[in-house]
Design a protein that fits this description.
Blueprint lengths: L11 H14 L3 H23 L4 H7 L4 H10 L8 H7 L7 E3 L5 E3 L6
Antiparallel strand pairs: 1-2
Length: 115
């Protein structure tokens, strides 16, 4: 992700809090403000993802994250990506091979078909 300068008016109280955070975390206030801005943008993006207004791959790109990172972070925020377990049971597995748990606890494909 490329960064570019952007002029921004920030209330004095916010800058004082950023300076305090910077002191506590041994960083500068600019970094503290940037981290807050990113955290708020990430929160906004995940809310839009949960609402279906954004999709996974473009959201990952906007946040400079991998799709894997998005899939890992979504449940932490209470967001379930893809079909829910209930939808999967109700609709069936579609084109995916049924899975069977073996005696060793591993999940494997119950049959494999090649085209």
């Amino acid at each position: 992700m490329t960064n570019r300068p952007y002029p921004l008016r920030i209330p004095e109280g916010i800058l004082q809090l950023a300076e305090l955070r910077g002191h506590e975390e041994r960083t500068d206030k600019t970094t503290a403000v940037r981290q807050w801005l990113y955290a708020a943008a990430e929160e906004y993006a995940f809310k839009r993802l949960a609402e279906g207004r954004l999709t996974l791959s473009p959201t990952a790109e906007l946040l400079d994250l991998s799709v894997y990172d998005m899939q890992r972070k979504a449940p932490e925020r209470g967001i379930e990506l893809g079909a829910t377990a209930e939808q999967y049971r109700r609709e069936g597995c579609g084109p995916v091979c049924p899975r069977v748990e073996t005696s060793s606890g591993l999940t494997t494909a119950s049959h494999i078909s090649y085209i």
